[in-house]
Records
---
Amino acid sequence: AQEVLDSARADPARFAALALEYSNCPSAQVGGNLGQLSRGDVVPEFWQAITAFAGVGVVPTLVETRHGLHAVRVTRRIEGHVLPYDAVRPRIADRLADLGLQHALRDYAHGLMHEAAHHDH
């Protein structure tokens, strides 16, 4: 892994080719590209490493996570913005309504299964 990272740092343009050849992540098929990531998209230790790096380019050290060792290249950073509550209130309301419906349906299904189990006896 260290040799692959050293090669990527020496020639960042080869990152995709190196990922294709050496990575065992499904992203290897697309040159290691994970797309645009947000905090919740990756395990915390991966997020911490790319946030601590704070730049663009190949992260100088291997990133170790519960999934193994990673050579990481950051190609672009877009800083997020905290939105005012009024701007997100409708989305929050929709999400809570969806969750409420999911819980109600799950409770209903459990009730049906419970009834069916007691009718068999």
Note: Strands lie at 57-58, 63-65, 68-70, 73-74.
---
Amino acid sequence: MATNLKRRWQLGKVRPGDGSQLPDYRLWHLFSRSVFFLELVDKGGRPLAYAVDVRPWADPKSRREHEAGGKSPAALYRDGVQVARSNLPATFPVEGGVVEVAASMAGLKRLRFVDDGGGELPLRPHPRSHEGRRARLARTRPRLSAGIGMASLVTLLVALTLMLVQLVATLSEVPPVAENLGVLTSPVTLPVWGNVVLGLLAAFAGTERATRLRHHWLLDSAVS
């Protein structure tokens, strides 16, 4: 029920596209833009080529401004022509289902095709994008890719654990808590620079996971 309501709300945000052509992907788009592709077939057997252009850090506009035009955080293209656009999170109607798009501060956390029967299919990233380069590494150097993925996971686990331990220790010093439960001494207390370094490492790890569209509500919360 909640999922259906959420989807209907997101579908209601979708506005008609402006008919523009899908812009070429340039090197300087690496840190600001993601493009994914999806090939489907209509009821008559005609192939349809969809593309989703996502710019997570584009300024979200009000509904009136959004309808008037301008850059949108997410846009849907069919056969190279913009047919729909929306703020994030977004759900675009396509042949036989919908395309769901969501982002966090670290990058994309969800971009998938969900058919009318509930089946899911990942979209193919543009080969020049961060996501495309990461997917190519996974294909050509699977062991290295797996090692990087494991390092990202461990970094986020350590960062989350240390953050929670220090937070609990700090909260235990609040007078009402200290009087009833006592003060907890954190086994690990990082200096300011240590927390900064840990935060940067966690941000890099979260970004790496975002290039693989990996997202966990708790694990990635530290960088989302």
Note: DSSP finds six helices and ten strands in the chain.
---
Amino acid sequence: MTDRRRLSKVFTGSLIEVEFMKTQLEDAGIDCLVQDVFLEGIHAGLPIGTPNSVELYVEEEDQEKAEQIVRDLS
């Protein structure tokens, strides 16, 4: 996944849920990016968010397909 592409958030949940969704999307050929704001904040000394606020992003061109997979798994 290149950093110049536009990303879309397709799921927010716990790290376990996000990792499961990420695996399913990658199995379908969709590259993903996980952002854990809570963990990033702890490392920076500024705990923000919650442990259930991990976000999963895909490239905009894969958004529709990814959202359908997420809906089917939810």
Note: The two ends are 25 Å apart (CA to CA).
